Amino acid sequence: MADNIPVLSQRAMAMPASPIRKLVPHADAAKERGIKVYHLNIGQPDIPTPDSFWNAVKNYDTDVLAYGHSQGLPSYRKKLAKYYQKVGYDVQPDNIVVTTAGSEAIIFCMMALCSPGEELVVPEPFYTNYNGFAVMSSVHLVPITCKAEDGFHLPPKEEIAKLITDKTRGIVYCSPNNPTGAVFTRDELQGLADLAREHNLFLMADEVYREFIYEGEHTSVFELEGIDQQAIILDSISKRYSACGARVGCIVTRNNELVEKLIRFGQARLCPPTLEQAGAEAALDEGDEYFEETMNEYKKRRDVVYDILMQIPDVVCLKPSGAFYIMAKLPVDNADAFAQWMLTDFSYENATTMIAPGSGFYATPNVGLDEARIAYVLNVDDLRKAMETLKLGIEAYNRR
Amino acid sequence: MADNIPVLSQRAMAMPASPIRKLVPHADAAKERGIKVYHLNIGQPDIPTPDSFWNAVKNYDTDVLAYGHSQGLPSYRKKLAKYYQKVGYDVQPDNIVVTTAGSEAIIFCMMALCSPGEELVVPEPFYTNYNGFAVMSSVHLVPITCKAEDGFHLPPKEEIAKLITDKTRGIVYCSPNNPTGAVFTRDELQGLADLAREHNLFLMADEVYREFIYEGEHTSVFELEGIDQQAIILDSISKRYSACGARVGCIVTRNNELVEKLIRFGQARLCPPTLEQAGAEAALDEGDEYFEETMNEYKKRRDVVYDILMQIPDVVCLKPSGAFYIMAKLPVDNADAFAQWMLTDFSYENATTMIAPGSGFYATPNVGLDEARIAYVLNVDDLRKAMETLKLGIEAYNRR
């Protein structure tokens, strides 16, 4: 008797493959051929996780690794509120819901703001997993297209207003931005806040790269005018303390009803990981010098990447001032095909460079086809080699 | 200018409060009055997490706590497959998707099987958080009502068949069962498998209490006939290794297409916690004596709870043979009111007992109103005192 195979849900069939990870089999094959692959495709920092984190985890002293509070460990929320107060926002421990990384923060908020079929407006290119979360929660993402020529800054407020319908429940943005590195200005963000106020929407800000600023300053959604009950911070320790594997993030809002409902989502899944919250709590003791050192390193890397990019004819890219990514329009017809070719057909001094094709960061079809994201997560020497290899690769690709 | 407060989603408003945790403020108030509260309301075991787990976490040696593989650490999946082979199921590492605890396993499967509005059939009373996950994923749970008089075993297959509609995508059950302690027999489960086969449905089995069996034997969904591509195991280390705060679970299926889509859900949230997977991997080295010792302890506890329950006139409850819960019909008109009264109005020798009212474990309205779940997660001495206190409480409540 043949096996029955029930069909999967429409939702499962609609789940996108990760554009960042889909080239991995080609990278593996290149490595099997003995070629070194410079990974500029993923946002995995090489900065050590602080000792304070490790010590707290290793000295965690209990017999039973028990459930923690669904809202997050009280001692962690207390100290986290102090961190936000120190960076200048009025946040109390009860305004915080600790989540299993930024991923859960985003999906909880999507679900709390939107029922199936409702809409969130989001500047594109955007963090590619927003797509996956939207499919999982049956939310429709409505993109605001930003352009390489404008340094991926926002279009005028009037353009954005045209995207708001009676199904729109919020606007979600990321600044400093993944994948572009753009840091939205206070004026740009106040424009979004004004739209949120005029249309009674939530304004969700993914601020996980808050400290990663090389020029200018970061403006938090909590500093904007007139949206006290509408502002939501999405946050994570993954990049701040180079602890991507810890899976600790949070949602911050002064809207008590939202907190109450988020706690219900939290209760359903019981709690975020306990040990890593202890580590995250300890990492909050890191002084300004920790961030200064890290930021100086990233700034140097950004300059290396940008300088070499600018030596490639016809690259379009304004110098980004935050996060650790650069999105650039490359002089190739199709960045997906080019990125794959770099892995399958090209090497220089027995090495090649892996980048993330741009199309996966857009919701609008056929946009960003000649763009790619470069994550500067290698040390300066390796990064220089990786970028020189990319430059030679582009030349070779266009000479084929 | 008054604050705008945008409304939350219908989904957020529909999220149920945890019936297990909703009495917590009354328990806190009792404690403030100096009353000791025996917590039989939550499934937090007091058994120590094994040293093997702690040692692996504390000796985890790396500078950067990096993202792990979205499907779970390969070394962990390899060893986990061996664990399943040892307990007798044909499982390969590629059949496993590691999740952030059993919670994520369930929600990923709900999403992969059902689009919004589609249905899963589930025996009730059931693990209360299934309700929350169903609201989050906009899935409709269709209950099969099981009764205290039958030891919460399944009704005849023909009764269950009547619940299947053209929107039904699967059947989900838990055995050994939370909240009832019932262990479904091979015949009962083969009945579900036959239904799954006849109606081309998935059959999802929450088997997190696999080792917690005091009489009879556990039958896995992977041992049932004719549903090779339809069988799904939902699993977790929370109870098995008393590591509830670790947040490590998994989904096991021989259906490759399902694995592929589950990995996409997994890629969206990047990875489960890394450190705890290392701990979970080490815990798999625990020998049979670890489980024997733990199970002997739980069996003693079950006997204490059951014996004292049987001394209370008009309690309805068959002796359950698994997990660490007993669900019983109590001689009170409303178990919600009674459970609250135990915290607000009753104490014996300056102590009271907290139980989980039954209604929250049912999807059918107004069923289980006189039932409660008792989790035997205290040592035998405390458990005896807690149960004697409960017995005296019931007498006093009915004399009011």
Defining traits:
2 domains, 13 helices, 400 residues, homodimer, three-stranded antiparallel beta sheet, Aspartate Aminotransferase, domain 2, alpha/beta, seven-stranded mixed beta sheet, globular, Aspartate Aminotransferase, domain 1
Helix content of chain A: 25-40%
Structural class of chain A: alpha/beta
Tell me which oligomeric state these chains represent. Answer: homodimer
Order of helices and strands of chain A: HHEHHEHEHEHEHEEEHHHEHEEEH
- Named CATH topology of the largest domain in chain A: Aspartate Aminotransferase, domain 2
Give start-end ranges of low-pLDDT stretches of chain A: none
- What is the terminal separation of chain A in angstroms? 53 Å
What is the CATH C-level name of the largest domain in chain A?
Alpha Beta
**CATH superfamily label of the largest domain in chain A:** Type I PLP-dependent aspartate aminotransferase-like (Major domain)
Question: Largest inter-chain interface?
Answer: A-B, 86 and 86 residues
Coarse morphology of chain A: globular
What's the architecture of the largest domain in chain A in CATH terms? 3-Layer(aba) Sandwich
- Average pLDDT taken over every residue of chain A: 95
